[in-house]
Amino acid sequence: MNLLFFASTFGLALAIALASKRGTKGKEEIEREFWDRERAANNTRKQPLDDLAYIKLPMEIFPMELLPDDPNVEDYRQTILSLNELPIVNFTGLTNTDLKLRYGAPNITLLTSYDQSYTLLVRTLQQWAQALYDGGYPNEACQLLEFSVSTGTDVSATYRLLCKIYREQGTPEKISTLYPMAETLNSASQKTIVGILQEADESSL
Q: What is d(CA 70, CA 168) in angstroms, rounded to the nearest whole number?
């Protein structure tokens, strides 16, 4: 199946589901607006990518020497080294249609690869941080988690583990610093993540 066609049909299904939940528009109207927008997107010429917010990996914070005998950790290290050679951009909350309208249809494959690299990055950081925490290295885990949050991750487990570390280290006041990023996430997980922070705040009282 063509990946871009699948993404478009998934976007349509999501649009219908959201509109149905809000009870504002009928299914036919939603479909018409969606496909009108998709046609416009497919006809958008290639645009410059000068305004992309590329993510640079701070390699100095990654604890490459810790847990050397853990094969999973070795996989995380190798993944980070590979990602360090690739362009990474967070497009969370933007559909393929959004990207084509802004940057042109000819750029969509390239932009999709940038976003896939980002998804791999934040997933790897979460898994690596969890392994470090479980292995007795909460400070190093905290560094990875804080960097991930700074990139706009919507991985809820990242916020949950970071809150846990803050509480255990006796710095629960740091939880409040996570709200600005969490509250502005363009993601379906936004409310869940804010809820995690609120729950962590309440349990710290």
A: 25
Quick: pLDDT tens for 73-84: 999 999 999 999
Task: Identify the sign of the CA torsion 72, 75, 80, 81.
Answer: positive
Greatest Cα pair distance, the chain, in angstroms, is 57
**Which tens digit of pLDDT belongs to each residue from 139-176?**
999 999 999 999 999 999 999 999 999 999 999 999 99
CA-to-CA dists, residue 135 to 62, 63, 68, 130, 174, angstroms: 15, 13, 11, 8, 23
What length does the chain have?
Answer: 205
Give the model's pLDDT for residue 202: 85
Closest CA to 87 of 125, 48, 121, 130: 121
Q: Which amino acid is at 99?
A: L
- Mean pLDDT confidence for 94-106: 95
Cβ of 154: how many Cβ atoms within 10 Å? 20
